[in-house]
Specification:
heterodimer, A: mainly beta, seven-stranded mixed beta sheet, four-stranded antiparallel beta sheet, globular, B: mainly beta, 12 strands, 53% strand
Chain lengths: 115, 117
Amino acid sequence: GAGVSQSPSNKVTEKGKDVELRCDPISGHTALYWYRQSLGQGLEFLIYFQGNSAPDKSGLPSDRFSAERTGGSVSTLTIQRTQQEDSAVYLCASSYGGGLNTEAFFGQGTRLTVV
Amino acid sequence: AQKVTQAQTEISVVEKEDVTLDCVYETRDTTYYLFWYKQPPSGELVFLIRRNSFDEQNEISGRYSWNFQKSTSSFNFTITASQVVDSAVYFCALSEGGAGNNRKLIWGLGTSLAVNP
């Protein structure tokens, strides 16, 4: 597609439920990133994919968080047993290659609210 | 440790005023990149500029200009003759090098700019 697409745009879930957030990167972009943006917290790195592998998962906050990428394209971020502190905007970005000087293109994010 | 500080949380100006958004960074790397992104109310982060640590030339793009000074570890962003459409949150970010193809950005907390008519 023309840009990075994320779905759903908004998700309200009950505490304890599992959620899946989807990211469709720009076609041909090999690198994919997930970030979390909490109110007043700025952007927090979660995980980075190069192709289907994730060389850097250091930002995942707990083992309730996992992500996968298939076919070098679509990625899914899964949060199990959601907690209220998981409420945030989850942003996905993609870039051509993963080198230091590549710019990332962001989607509009998924706003997750855990009630 | 690597860190990006945007000391101005919120700025409010009247249309046509010039405004400068400050960004100060900390890094021990000799090779690094600095970025500015704009986040309008729609939520999508929009890339504005990338600058590498070896290029201290200031850059101008239309009404936007950037002043990179390694001596003060600053990468400030100026909007000349601001417009209402410039209202957004602006983020400064620093690239963090790593082994192999690892790459992630260290972000400032953002400056919320309101341009009033």
